[in-house]
Design a protein that fits this description.
There is one protein chain. With 244 residues, the protein is of the alpha/beta class. Helix content is 35%, strand content 19%. It folds into 2 domains: 111 residues, P-loop containing nucleotide triphosphate hydrolases (Rossmann fold, 3-Layer(aba) Sandwich), CATH 3.40.50.300; 109 residues, Dinitrogenase iron-molybdenum cofactor biosynthesis domain (Nucleotidyltransferase, domain 5), CATH 3.30.420. The strands form 3 sheets. Strands 6, 7, 8, 9, 10 and 11 form a 6-stranded mixed β-sheet that branches. Helix 1 links the parallel strand 1 and strand 2. The longest helix is centred in the middle third of the chain and has 19 residues.
Amino acid sequence: MIVTTPQEISLADVRKSINFCRQVNMKILGLVENMSGLKCPHCGEMIDIFKTQGGVLTAKKEGLNLLGSLPFEPEVVSKGDTGNMSLLDDNKLLITQEFNKIVDKIVELTETGSEPVPEAKNELLDRKKGSADSKILVVPVSGGKLSAHFGHCEQFAFIETQNGEIIETEMHNPPGHEPGVLPRWLYDQGADVIIVGGMGDMAQQLLREKGIEVIIGAPMDSPESLANQYLSNNLVAGANVCDH
């Protein structure tokens, strides 16, 4: 079971945890979103302290069971400091209600022997396996255009192509920028080709070792424009803008 909070800084680490579990064939029972809003003690309105539905959207995108969401509860702090968690016996509290729903969901999944992680964990990878004529092109993007350096981009555009035509483009947030993480992540996501402006020698080596074609020195165009240039064999590569 993986627990996250709704904000992106937490979700980025959670995505790395999910990828790790899959790499070592560890089944994931599901995702729990903690700190999911605060119920105002005066009016009862829910206040979204962090952004909303971060855990919900991540579970959907990763093909995981969403086990439930736990709100902030001030009593957790006061009771926890004294080692007393009797609040979980108080069904009037929202956190207790949601906690019990999560327990029921876990019991249901474990008793019925349901598959914790659906088979279609990665739609891009599944589509890639469906046809020898399909390719996943990846472009690092900042401000809607190719980012000068793939390791410091805002997002990655994953462009699914088949028979020389663009089928679909999906934008993915990258994992944390650490040595060796991006090449492994791109491989796990099913990338066939990566089109960049600049890239370090080590990243190039890691990607090519995984069978991913690397095109360096591409112009600062939109992802779709670069993909079409590649598919029509008109993509002109220039100098590597990365100096390490």
